[in-house]
Amino acid sequence: MTPTDPSPDRNQRRVATDGGVSTTDDAESTSDPTEADGDSEKLVDVSSSFTVSDDDEDRPQAAETAIETRDLDVYYGDEQALQSVSMEIPEKQVTALIGPSGCGKSTFLRCLNRMNDLIDIANVDGEVRFEGKNIYDEDVDPVALRRKIGMVFQQPNPFPKSIYDNVAFGLEVQDEAVTDETVRRALERAALLEEVDGRLDESGLELSGGQQQRLCIARAIAPDPEVILMDEPASALDPVATSKIEDLIADLSEEYTVIIVTHNMQQAARISDKTAVFLTGGELVEYDDTKDIFENPDNQRVEDYITGKFG
Amino acid sequence: MASETPSSGTWFGSAEKVGRLRGRIFKWTCLGATVLTLALMLVFLLYVANDAFRPFSADPGWLATMGLTVVVPIALLAGYYYRRDRSAGQVAYTALGLPVLVALASGGLWLLFRHIVSPREWFVLVVSIVVAGGLVVGHSRVRHDAVTERLVVTVLVPLLVVVGIPTVLPGLGQFLYLLPVLPNALFSLILGFVLPVAAIVGWRVRAVRDADRDGAIAAGITVAGGLAGLGLGPLVGIHPTSWFVFAAPIVGALVVYVEHVVRNDKGLSGLAFPVVVVAGVFAGLAVTQLLGFAGPDAWLNMDFLTSAHDTDPSEAGIYPTLVGSVLILLVIVLSAFPVGIGAAIYLEEYATSQGRFGTVMELIQVNIANLAGVPSIVYGVLGLAIFINLIGMGRGTAVVAGFTVGLLILPIVIISTQEAIRAVPDSHRQASYAMGATKWQTVRNVVLPESLAGIFTGTILALGRAIGETAPLLMIGIPATVRIAPDSFLSRTGAMPRQIFSWSTQITTEFRYGVLAAGVVTLLVVLLTMNAAAIVLRNRSQQTQ
After folding, report:
1. Which residue ranges run through the membrane (chain B) (predicted)?
2. Which CATH superfamily is domain A21-51+62-306 in?
């Protein structure tokens, strides 16, 4: 698949971006600002009562919930980074988290696999339910949790090891058998195998930035997690590499729940099924199907943000 | 700028507007400081080298011949590399430096074989270690999932096999001594040294070339280089065992390096450099011998390196103290390095910065930095008080000297290791944790492999500091002169810097100038070679990252 010519089935899932967002009377009529925080019931209502007008949507509407957060607060020292965020993230779909810098979307993402535990001053309050268990319970081992929830970072960060060893790393630390077949399959699913076949023993650092990021994705999916968290995975890449990563994310969502933080609103509109908009102060302002968020946002601040008047 | 009216007519390049005088003066002053430092070092080195080698005591014909056969070719080749092929220059100095470095290390090993561990004991030790390693690997194959059991086996089996239980169960070595037939020294070294070295070389080449045949060839060359001593050694007057100890590692290292250069196909012509140097030296020696030119009457020669102190300056040598210094270095490597590296790993990777414990850690950190600045004589007093007076270890032994100087360089080891660990990008740790790795897995698989080169660099530099320390040795009773090399870590031993210090107090002028200079140059050569190795290692690790 060439980067400039995305596969047709992805086109169907794409939602109109700039055109659809332009302010209309229709958008202004929904001036009642919805307060998202502390109102998880309402959010559930919004997402389940939504009916798509276009019939080319290929996703089931009532997907199972993969992760649910309830009143999630995060503090860095005395500073509050997330304010009582409640949302349900559907299984095997792409959920995008957007918002201006410092709005807490990365913090939220790092709560989902307890990477915030590694920051001494971070303090998490509230619940994150994953497979029927609050992951912040005393008896949850964050290491075991991270083996179920993989993560890809903003900067490609392959280890200074061979391509093969990079992919095998997760299998090794999780005590799973490392076979050529599993490594190759992970590379294939990350759409990288064709480009690196025959030189798997070369250093992962010799790849280009976009290839490195796909290597990181291959590394994350090799141990077969349930959920993949992506923290602005394409922001350090050029448009061609970005397009490849986007294609890949669409493919991955068939098998995995993908949650992606992005600065790029067009990207969120293109690749995600659901979108959550965080605004300054760590507040989840609106969370809905991507189409609704971009075409017909409930909240005036969200609309201002999406149309570029603010943020 | 736009509002100013240019009164002088030209707005560009006028000295009054852009003042640069102070900047220039500052720049030249800094340059002066640099030149002064370098010049002082160079003058000192030339001065000492002149005293040690006395090149002008040689026939002018000898100097001219050597200049023609050695210096001129080196200069021509260096010029060629500089102009045409920079990467070949890099290959050239590595190809020449690597054998020198390996020879130095082999020299240390040779001293050990001669005085501390007999070849036969070494052979028994190697067999025990191989058996223990085989048992551990076998266990992990058979019972792959028993992690706790493997931990116990990995610790206990080598201990049981190599050491045994004192007074209850002898180690495997004890049983081997009971065998009716044990190989003699020659075969012990072939089996216990040449073959393992060749195996390592072959395994390494096989790994990088991914071909069994190439590995076998590399191992074969190494074995051949070692065993050549059986025939060639007696011809040139070197005992075959000595030949084994020096030749096998040098040939092995060269095989690995040449394979590396050939595989990368970069700077191949640099490999000619060591050949030209060695051929030049031999040609020069042959010609001068033929024409009857006398070489310089150097203080630093083979006799100096192989004989003990003597009341006659021309007979005096450094050999026993060289052995002592090697033993002390070995004690330092085995004691201070594990402790220092372990402490650094804890401080960097495990210690929290939060709460009361964090305050304690910060205090420790500050104190380690302070300890690095404590005068060495104070460490000498500490060693005297703790190791000799309190614990009751023998005065002037290699163990006490190693522990004391080890204590001295411990803060340096900790700080440099911490810096190496800190250089590992945090994003790699994050990636590892996000993969569901535990702290131990992250340290073991990500942090340590990536910081290893930096840790080596720092520790080698620390070792360079250790080898020259004199003041602590004075405090813990290292004898001023020794005539006999120590035969164990627990016997009284000399040390090079201590010996140099006592030569400086001799009344005879030859001691204070010639012999002293020869000792200083010996010490400097060891130290500078170690530092050069550290620098090359650092450059290589920077290239790969």
Report:
1. 25-49, 61-82, 94-116, 122-139, 151-169, 181-203, 215-236, 242-259, 271-294, 322-347, 368-391, 397-415, 446-467, 513-537
2. P-loop containing nucleotide triphosphate hydrolases (3.40.50.300)
